[in-house]
Amino acid sequence: MDRLWAPWRINYISGKKRKICIFCQAKKTKAKDYVILDTRHSISLLNIFPYNNGHCLISPKRHTADISSLSRAEVADLYDALKRTKSLLDKVLKPHGYNIGMNLFRAAGAGVPGHLHVHIVPRWKGDANFMYVIHDTRVISQSLEELHKRLLKAEGRHA
């Protein structure tokens, strides 16, 4: 295969960089930004440029870059939102495992260095298929819209 068309990626590659923080915007616009959970101190949303199907981002609502600045209540809420997001992904996608982590600050690879967030990436045995290994191309098998609806339904809400 010479080409795999993914026209939605052009916004990521050449689109204008947002002036507003994606996490601060998501807490205001919720459904538009694929929000799954909205807790007292945290928000969980689908990554619109995922590494794998179901890739989610969990962040504190307060705009902060450093985990050291979080209160105990914010840390507990963030971890609870991570657990709830994982449970929803378990229920809807049934992955075989997860990669969960943070990149703090630009030097560590943070794509949004000004706002702390946790990545949760569902994984399946053998999901590094030939496309990624040979062509450095990922195949995402489900639209964000469909997955967002299924995750909200699993949470007992509707889009």
What labels describe this entry?
159 residues; alpha+beta; HIT family, subunit A; 5-stranded antiparallel β-sheet; 5 helices; 5 strands; 16% strand
Task: Write a structural description.
The protein is of the alpha+beta class. Helix content is 33%, strand content 16%. Strand 1 (35-38) and strand 2 form a beta hairpin. Helix 3 crosses helix 5 (144-154). The radius of gyration is 16 Å and the shape is globular. The termini are far apart.
Offer a concise description of the structure:
The longest helix is centred in the middle third of the chain and has 22 residues, at 72-93. 33% of the residues lie in helices and 16% in strands. The chain is an alpha+beta fold and 159 residues long.
The N- and C-terminal alpha carbons lie at a distance of: 36 Å
Spell out the CATH superfamily: HIT-like
For the CA atoms, what is the radius of gyration?
A: 16 Å
Task: Give the total of beta strands.
Answer: 5
Portion of residues in beta strands equals: 15-25%
